[in-house]
From TrEMBL:
Residues annotated as domain Response regulatory: 4-118
Every Sigma-54 factor interaction domain range: 140-369
Keyword Cell cycle attributed: no
Lineage: Bacteria, Pseudomonadati, Calditrichota, Calditrichia, Calditrichales
A molecular function GO annotation: sequence-specific DNA binding
Keyword ATP-binding: yes
One Pfam family here: Sigma54_activat
Matches recorded under InterPro entries: AAA+_ATPase, AAA_lid_NorR, CheY-like_superfamily, Homeodomain-like_sf, HTH_Fis, P-loop_NTPase, Sig_transdc_resp-reg_receiver, Sigma_54_int
Modification sites for 4-aspartylphosphate: D53
UniProt source species: Caldithrix abyssi
Keyword terms, alphabetized: ATP-binding, Nucleotide-binding, Phosphoprotein, Transcription, Transcription regulation, Two-component regulatory system
Name of the protein in its database record: Sigma-54-dependent Fis family transcriptional regulator
One GO-annotated biological process of the protein: phosphorelay signal transduction system
């Protein structure tokens, strides 16, 4: 890889010298003596590093540093200063410059600093790429009011240190919300640790959270930091907090109150800075009432509560999620499924999804893998449901109670049609065009049916 370096200095002789030093090391160099050209060059080219004189006519190095950082914040800037300008160079570092070299230039010192700056830039760019990919992966998909409110809350609280309690049925996406908070926070470059409190026995969970000293118990052949110490500066996600042993809850409460950990076998507490996000799929108040969850612990954990409604209560999110998973699994399984037809969309919309988003994701992955054409049909969904032993209760919510009386087929059809149209209208906020599209009919036909059934 050929690195491109921009050198800015009003001393023409120094420019020639720097150009020669860098070119001999196979760097691509743009050397300019007019600092007013820097902005245009930054807009036109991408530089891996900038060597910048501290003091030049027309504009000083500090002012130019601010412009460079606005245009290209990830590009490391190395200040070049004379002995009398060392104080200015140090100030530049405080304002974002990577390092400085003194005049007269020591070529070896310059090349070492530049090498380190380029390595630093590569690490920063890699971290930024990973962060952006994580933000993309952990964005909230859907258009329901409930989801918009959750997204708004995440945006408001992410950069704070407030503790968060996430509630909701299994499969609703509690882990995704926790990750969205972490990767939008100031801790995003630090560690996110996840512990499922229901999956680990009490003694093992205590050791996993708080760590131990060598010799603390039989089998402790070396020190182990535990998740609190290993996650210091980051975020710890405690899933299924309602299943944590009641005695272990007391030890967790101390960490939350004192911001320090008592490692097993160590008499000296250790300070920690960890943001806690917890989650449960159980009724919090019932857990407290039954004595399975400490009330004082819940006060500490429940800084902000985010409740994720089940998918059946936010049907507006079903199709956006289905198409999100369609695109995701097209990429991962090298398929080109183009769409879900209207009847299949309607079926997905009216199934109850007891397993919530997790179940929808599993269904969509199987559809992408197993269907033969480039369009998902209702028959494809039936086959996948049968393969997964899912009982398709898709339309149960729109068939009214007939008080155990049987009706002829025409009457049953009329009852179903009216109630199904009402259901679709409700789910689309009575947007006639959208409802007609889901029903697979045009708007004129929809209005006729609404008048026929006395809906309008």
């Amino acid at each position: 890889m050929s690195y491109r370096i921009l050198v800015v200095d009003d001393d023409e002789n120094l420019l020639k010298s720097l150009n020669k030093i860098l070119s001999l090391q196979h760097y691509s160099v743009d050397a300019i003596s007019n600092p007013m050209q820097v902005e245009k060059l930054l807009e036109r080219n991408q530089y891996h590093s900038v060597l910048l004189d501290v003091k030049m006519p027309g504009i000083n190095g500090l002012e130019l540093l601010k412009i460079i950082m606005q245009k290209s914040i990830l590009t490391p800037v190395i200040m070049v200063s004379g002995q009398s300008n060392i104080e200015i160079a140090m100030r530049a570092i405080k304002e974002g410059a990577y390092d400085f070299v003194e005049k007269p230039i020591d070529p070896d010192r310059l090349l070492i600093v530049l090498k380190h700056a380029l390595q630093h830039q590569e690490l920063v760019e890699a971290r930024e790429k990973i962060t952006q990919e994580l933000l993309k992966n952990f964005k909230m998909v859907g258009k329901s009011v409930a989801l918009r409110n959750i997204s708004d809350t995440i945006e408001k609280i992410a950069k704070t240190n407030i503790k968060v309690l996430i509630t909701g049925e299994s499969g609703t996406g509690k882990e995704l919300v926790a990750k969205a908070i972490h990767y939008n926070s100031n801790r995003q470059t630090k560690r996110l640790s996840e512990i499922n409190c229901a999956a680990i026995p009490r003694d093992l969970l205590e050791n996993e959270l708080f760590g131990h000293k060598k010799g603390a118990f039989s089998g402790a052949i070396s020190d182990y930091d535990g998740q609190f110490l290993e996650t210091n500066g980051g975020t710890l996600f405690l899933d299924e907090i309602g299943d944590m042993d009641i005695h272990l809850q007391a030890k967790l409460l101390r960490v939350l109150e004192e911001n320090e950990v008592n490692v097993i076998g160590d008499t000296t507490p250790k300070k920690v800075d960890v943001r806690i996000i917890s989650a449960t799929n159980k009724d919090i108040e019932q857990l407290i009432k039954s004595g399975k969850l400490r009330k004082d612990l819940m006060f500490r954990l429940n800084g902000i509560r985010i409740h994720i409604p089940p998918l059946r209560e936010r049907k507006e999110d079903i199709l956006p999620l289905a198409y999100h998973f369609l695109n995701k699994f097209n990429d991962s399984h090298n398929r080109q499924i183009l769409k879900i037809n209207r009847q299949a969309e309607s079926y997905l919309l009216n199934y109850n999804w007891p397993g919530n988003v997790r179940e929808l994701m599993s269904v969509m992955e199987r559809l992408v893998v197993f269907i033969k054409g480039n369009e998902i049909t209702i028959e494809d969904i039936h086959r996948v449901f049968n393969n997964m032993n899912i009982s398709p209760t898709a339309y149960s919510d729109v068939i009214p109670n007939l008080e155990n009386k049987l009706a002829d087929l025409r009457t049953a059809h009329e009852i179903f049609e009216k109630n199904y149209i009402l259901e679709v209208l409700e789910q689309t906020d009575w947007k006639k065009s959208e409802a007609a599209q889901i029903l697979g009919i045009d708007r004129t036909n929809l209005y006729k049916k609404m008048r026929k059934h006395g809906i309008i």
